[in-house]
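Module 6 notes. Inverse folding takes a fixed backbone as the condition and produces residue identities as the prediction. Think of it as a translation problem where the source language is geometry and the target language is the twenty amino acids. Below is one complete input and output pair. Work through it position by position during the lab.
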């Protein structure tokens, strides 16, 4: 029995797509997790959002070749997923779980007192970020926490690069005022 050439070509194409998706997971899973976690503040929800993003990629695997910048494309998918989840939940669950702090705080060479102080500072900065207006908070999260460029943020949010820069400028100024105000109250 002879196997049709089209079946062989289809199998080769499928393997190539699978390898490409596997490479995307290896390369971008960490960055996507940081994006999701910066918004959701819950490791389980962030992991679920990343998994959902890759499931969407699998569903649209035939369009992978058309994507110019996979990083921005994937971040935009995760960004939309986490914003949808936040809208549905209407609240943002905060966590005091020690394992959550271990993900975001350095663990080597610090005493218990230094770790507690770092955790307190980290929580304080996040509280200040939460006080920012939504548009400024979005660009700050994508820029500072997820290390995207102005061009990439513009692509993720669907706005102009100049809007990103002006929102980022306002966000940084507001953060400086919030942090300075809190420092003066101590």
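Target side of the pair, the amino acids:
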């Amino acid at each position: 029995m002879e196997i049709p050439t089209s079946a062989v070509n289809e199998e080769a194409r499928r393997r190539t797509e699978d390898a490409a998706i596997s490479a995307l997971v290896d390369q971008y899973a960490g960055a996507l997790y940081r994006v999701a976690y910066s918004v959701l503040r819950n490791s389980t929800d962030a992991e679920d959002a990343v998994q959902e993003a890759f499931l969407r990629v699998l569903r649209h695997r035939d369009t992978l070749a058309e994507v110019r910048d996979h990083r921005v494309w994937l971040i935009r998918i995760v960004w939309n997923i986490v914003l949808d989840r936040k809208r549905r939940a209407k609240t943002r669950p905060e966590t005091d779980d020690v394992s959550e702090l271990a993900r975001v705080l350095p663990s080597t060479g610090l005493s218990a007192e230094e770790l507690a102080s770092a955790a307190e500072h980290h929580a304080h900065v996040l509280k200040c970020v939460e006080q920012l207006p939504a548009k400024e908070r979005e660009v700050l999260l994508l820029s500072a926490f997820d290390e995207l460029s102005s061009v990439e943020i513009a692509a993720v949010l669907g706005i102009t690069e100049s809007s990103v820069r002006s929102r980022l400028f306002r966000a940084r100024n507001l953060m400086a005022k919030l942090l300075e105000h809190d420092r003066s109250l101590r």
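Reference fact for the lab report: The helical segments are 5-40, 43-59, 70-89, 98-104, 112-131, 134-145, 150-157, 161-185.
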